[in-house]
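Colleagues,

Please find the record for the two-part complex below.
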Amino acid sequence: MLINGKPGDLIPFSDRGLQYGDGLFETLAVRQGRPCLWQRHMARLSRGETALGFPPSDKQLLEKEVLALCAEHDLAVLKIILTRGSGGRGYAPPSPGSPRRLISLHPWPDYPQTWYSEGIHVGICRTRIGRNRQLAGYKHLNRLEQVLARRECQDDSLSECLMMDEREKVICGTQSNLFMLQGNAIYTPDLTHSGIAGVVRELVIEIAGQLSIPLHITDLDRDRLMSADAMFVTNSVMGFCSVAALNKRQFDQKNIPRELRHRVEEACSTA
Amino acid sequence: MLINGKPGDLIPFSDRGLQYGDGLFETLAVRQGRPCLWQRHMARLSRGETALGFPPSDKQLLEKEVLALCAEHDLAVLKIILTRGSGGRGYAPPSPGSPRRLISLHPWPDYPQTWYSEGIHVGICRTRIGRNRQLAGYKHLNRLEQVLARRECQDDSLSECLMMDEREKVICGTQSNLFMLQGNAIYTPDLTHSGIAGVVRELVIEIAGQLSIPLHITDLDRDRLMSADAMFVTNSVMGFCSVAALNKRQFDQKNIPRELRHRVEEACSTA
């Protein structure tokens, strides 16, 4: 892995990513030596930098480092962490500060093939996701809610767990965005106050538009999900997974428009 | 500083404290080579460990390491960070996991003497503090809200800024707990859903009880604060600071019971 462009795997204790979770990250699929959906990940990283008041990072330098690290890797997971760097007494951030970039490669997870052929089983966790308009949407390093949610979801029969906010609106999976189909339309949770705006979620929204499939960004509660015709979750590594069952309620993935799924899968896996 | 008891200041990139803010911390005053309010800090750390599902740490070992590090330091700030350690794929924590303890000493901040003789000026920030019952009260490492709030508060005339939740109830300062006096009673925000339950806050509540001063834990909004007779903030390092003014509204610290202040100050600075 690379820390500010140099090989290494140790970071100073003073790094604000450790001290306060003061940073951002991106997780990307790597195929044939290249990161997938690079521009979309970099656009989200830039939005996060603005939200946190980081100076804009050099995306060309980052790309150069990433390509060097990914070369000769046919299939891997790339994680980019950008922290505010060291310094600043207490919570007050140094200005302008000197962010630290950490780039690492990880083995591709061995998701079972049935996730794609039959779909996954999901539950709903007790851990709630907080509401904060200023941080919602960004992939920042404050992820204790997801850690606690995931901790609940270690039942091997569940591949993902859905998280609700304190109003009991379903926001997302612990590591994915959620979509449901009803009639001829797609519905996905409003992320104005909670959750991470996934790059594959963005793709689904665009491709639904291209295919003239109505897509509504709205509040969804548990009862509404139970009345869906089909459901799917997305993220940059798992791609597009249909939901076979939510608790005991089963869904039929044949109700997912084939062309939508095909185009999303293709876009996700194109380096 | 010490990492798992050994001198060093580098931590592995894989540490979950960095990856997800998956950890806890404590900040203590050190006087005459000893940490102040040790038992109270350890009790809060233990509550945090339970909340996050960490195995309980060895507090005697921690105390031994802390005493070795603090020896010969007359006045300093001690920071203890306890992360879930390395490992676990994605958000799912390793079970039982092997937490990493980081102990560091820092210079005592040079707060102006007027903070204590005249009180401090405070503002209210726009950054909101999120609500999450499961994480409220604990001093965990997800502190981006405080970082963003503190970033707003870099006006030199303001020593602290108050944070509200999305219901516009005032919860705390960026690094302190808040109390107001009205008539013969003390009021302090309810931290069931947001904020950190400070060890000095706990002391204030106990000492108010000993002095038979009514103390109410309740919702407080901006208008209510403006109607206070006096106000003060507390934390383990600044101790007890009266608020001279909130925006342009001035408060008279003479309305703070002298005995309460005296006993809290004494307890805070006793090693």
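DSSP finds eight helices and 16 strands in chain B.

Comments are welcome before we finalize the supplementary table.
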